[in-house]
Design a protein that fits this description.
Layout (H helix, E strand, L loop, with lengths): L2 E7 L4 H17 L6 E7 L11 E3 L9 E6 L12 H17 L3 E5 L4 E2 L2 H9 L3 E7 L4 E10 L1 H10 L19 E3 L4 E2 L14 E2 L32 H13 L18 H6 L12 H17 L5 E5 L5 H13 L6 E5 L29 H10 L7 E5 L2 H4 L8 E6 L4 H11 L3 E9 L5 H13 L7 E2 L5 E4 L3
Parallel strand pairs: 1-2, 1-5, 2-4, 3-4, 7-9, 10-11, 12-13, 12-15, 13-14, 15-16
Antiparallel strand pairs: 5-8, 6-11, 7-8, 16-18, 17-18
Helix pairs in contact: 2-4, 5-7, 5-8, 7-8, 11-12
Length: 479
């Protein structure tokens, strides 16, 4: 049977496309689920993905290609549980798409849903007639996130799609669909709804949303990531030095207490590891995950002889620059410079020229304004203040375009605002050597994320944006 697999879609930013829809799509493509074509029906997302293997359309089909993304320019959305015009339009569009393309079997698998076991996929592949759903034990109704409409049911689906939305609004959609069979013989549930781990004997999982940690998705086949540098051993004695340096820079070595307003002042290892709090005296607030990632990228640049200096733009107390200089010292590299760029007055006030920054108040927080003298003292305290560390003082818009560095191999940006992030990227990225790295510290902030997404879209950067933790991201410039 000619089979269409589809899901409905909406993504507020590129990260949702990557962490939700790309993960779902890759899982479908890597599985043995039969799919002559895969369709994502988008309800007016403000940004669209730039994927080489996806054809984006905004007109009725038929359409050629393995993966199609149909984009509705206007967003209808979902106003409440029982008021879902955007989802209904997308759901019904799949029926019309199937008719135009000559599909006689339609498999609906929502983007938060994964068919885990081969036996369940074989069951779905073997259905040739009827409107089948799986069973949702926690709610005791048919699981509409997984539906198979085959043969006569494909015609019934098309008939349903011609009914006005008002026919179904105001009642649970799950109880209104004309299922001919609800299969209870597989293990699965809406595990993500309760943040419950997916059991190892599960056949399927629902509501596995993008905000869950990567470890939650143990059932998704891993894909090769050629741009991720392998971990290589450091020179003799350097490993212990750099490990000790990391623990010291976060304050974990002496359990440096917290100074973030609204959080208890005591040291909390979980908060510190994730970079959720601000240490009272330690030189960095980025946490152990982002700090370890910065070290790994810097070491990779050295191992692979990626030409260029290192730069940290946005220093706070200087912890990132200290780590970068420490990596050079551990490897005995005397040819590269660590550029340490900051206003030394805290973040700038919002500029009306950048409306995404409107209302941001970080410039009013005294703790974020660390003077140059104090940063230099911190670098000196670690024995790393020498001619290989050069300070660049001033606002990014004024200083970074004139930075006296021809090539860079690692760029670390710690800008919360759209303005500071986009200004730094525009000034520094053209100097990044092929194979070099960009790491972003503030992606959890909407303005910073928008600047990163806009820059990557504007310059057609298709390199994967890798997640470090809740706010850290990085990518590698293609060689």
């Amino acid at each position: 049977m000619r089979t269409l697999v589809f899901c409905t879609a909406y993504a507020a930013n590129q990260e949702v496309w990557e962490r939700r829809y790309r993960r779902w799509l890759d899982a479908i493509l890597a599985s043995d689920l039969a799919a002559d074509q895969i369709l994502l029906v988008d309800d007016g997302s403000p940004v669209l993905p730039d994927w080489d293997d996806v054809t984006i359309v905004d007109q009725a089909g038929p359409h050629e290609g393995r993966v199609i993304l149909h984009h509705f320019p206007d967003r209808l959305g979902r106003r409440s549980v029982l008021d879902f015009p955007g989802w209904y339009r997308s759901f019904c569009h799949a029926a019309r798409h199937a008719e135009a393309g000559g599909f006689d079997k339609i498999v609906h698998i929502e983007s938060d849903t994964f068919l885990i076991t081969p036996r369940l996929r074989a069951y779905v592949n073997g259905l040739t007639d009827g409107w089948t759903a799986l069973w949702c034990p926690s709610h005791e109704f048919a699981e509409t996130a997984v539906q198979i409409m085959a043969g006569s049911a494909a015609i019934a689906f098309l008939d349903l799609s011609r009914q006005p939305y008002e026919t179904f609004a105001g009642r649970e959609f799950e109880i209104q669909l004309p299922f001919t069979h609800v299969e209870r013989g597989f293990i699965g549930d809406r595990y993500g709804e309760y943040d419950a781990p997916v059991p190892r004997d599960a056949d399927y999982a629902v509501q596995a949303v993008e905000t869950l940690d990567d470890d939650y998705f143990w059932f998704v086949p891993p894909l090769p990531a050629p741009d991720v540098p392998p971990r290589r051993p450091a020179p003799p004695n350097a490993e212990r030095y750099l490990d000790l340096l990391e623990r010291s820079l976060t304050g974990a070595l002496w359990q440096d207490p917290n100074c973030t307003p609204g959080i208890p002042e005591t040291y909390n290892p979980q908060l510190r590891a994730g970079g959720y709090d601000w240490p009272a005296t330690a030189p960095t607030m980025m946490g152990s995950a982002r700090l370890a990632n910065l070290r790994r990228l810097a070491e990779a640049a050295l191992h692979e002889s990626v030409p260029g200096d290192f730069i940290e733009a946005g220093l706070w107390r200087g912890g990132g620059a200290i780590l970068l200089r420490g990596v050079l010292a551990a490897y005995g590299d005397t040819t590269r410079t660590v550029w340490a760029a900051d206003s030394f007055r805290g973040p700038p006030a919002p500029d009306p020229a950048y409306p995404h920054d409107t209302g941001d108040g970080h410039h009013t927080l005294p703790i974020l304004a660390v003077c140059r003298r104090d940063v230099e003292r911190n670098v000196r305290h670690y024995g790393l203040l020498d001619p290989q560390v050069k300070f660049v003082e001033g606002w990014f818009a004024d200083t970074l375009p004139a930075l006296p560095a021809e090539r860079l191999s690692v760029i670390r940006l710690d800008g919360i605002l759209y303005s500071s992030t986009i200004q730094a990227l525009e000034a520094l990225y053209p100097r990044l050597s092929p194979g070099g790295f960009v790491t972003i510290n503030g992606y959890a902030f909407a303005a910073c994320a928008r600047a990163v997404d806009d820059f990557r879209s504007r310059h057609a950067i298709r390199a994967p944006l890798h997640r470090i933790d809740w706010t850290g991201r990085w990518w590698r410039k293609p060689r």
